[in-house]
Amino acid sequence: MSGVMGEDGLVPRVRSRLPVVCSAGLGLLMLPVAWLLDSDRFSERAGMIAFCITVETFIHSMCLFAEEWLVHSRQRYHGRINEIFQACFRGHVIFGMCSVFLMLMLGGVSFSGQQWSTIALMCAVYLLLRSLGFLGPAPVEISEICEMKKMNVAHGLAWSFYIGYLKFVLPDLQNKVTQYSSTRGKLSSPRLHILLPLNAKVPTKPEEEDTNVIFHENLPELERDTAGVRKRSYKNSVYKITQDKETFSCVLEYATPLLTLYQMSHESSAGFGERERKQQVLLFYRTLSQILEDSLECRNCYRLVLLNDEHTGDPHYLSREIIQHLKQQDGEIHMDPIQELPNEVHPVPEEGPIRNFNGAHHATYPEDPISNDPTLMFSQPQSLRSEPVETTDYFNQPHARR
Questions:
Q1: Taking the complete model, does pTM exceed 0.90, yes or no?
Q2: Using CA atoms, how far apart are residues 243 and 316, in angstroms rounded to an integer?
């Protein structure tokens, strides 16, 4: 479950298809403009431009194919030419080249020498600009591809954190908390609070960040055979958090994969700066939230606490954030049991005296017990045209008339 510090304005959302829609809309608007400027040669020029773009893309794919086939065929593709072909040529390129071939061979389309010269010049300019990087993808496009294909460092760290730790620790946490509460005292929250600082600085002990957060003791250990290690031990720690003479207790720990992000940002060979580190932390938070929310065995067993790194000068920022999360959970996990209404049956008689309670008419019920078995009750049929006539004894008495 996410935190309470307004992540909507901090955690980046998944990119939409707005650039594609804008590009398509502008392209459709430019077509009638081009037709108005030169309507006589519009179809001819449009066909030639489409032909040039298709040929340019095909030539560039051939250059990629030459690199993969001559240098990386055995190591990357095990000598399979079809895999190299699929990696270098996209489907629309093959479709475009087939259309061009059919147009030239069967359609009877021909170009003049000047047009062929223009096509060759356009292909040359395209290939030169592409080789110099002018037509390469923008950084935002590369980021979108990496996020869409789950190729970021944060994606791998989030999945590793879930598969290698949270997937089996969180489902067992409820049993550990129950064992602890039966002997040591009830915790303020049964969930594991995972701290994620934006600057990725993970201290060895939370006390180093805030003196109001004090280690109390560990929960019962979880032993598991993992990767050849017999009875590997996994521990979770209980901390006491104090504020204004009020004490809370919960299970909390830092997200250990953030240590990797922090250390990578200090290695020049990693090419990982401070700005990229913060983006990866936010992407790690978003990815881990999605993974845990989709996991049925981990749902409602955790709490992600995203910590802002702009709290310098506040020595008790960490304790305030944790207590804020704990107080928010009071209305989420502690729910009053539903009280069932008494199973009383109030039969409505057809006849009987009517009493007035607070301006409302209520019928009195006979004291004879009525069977619980369902029965069908029929009223006497009356004509739809007849006026209603009151026949009860109550209204026929003299004192009932006003």
A1: no
A2: 9
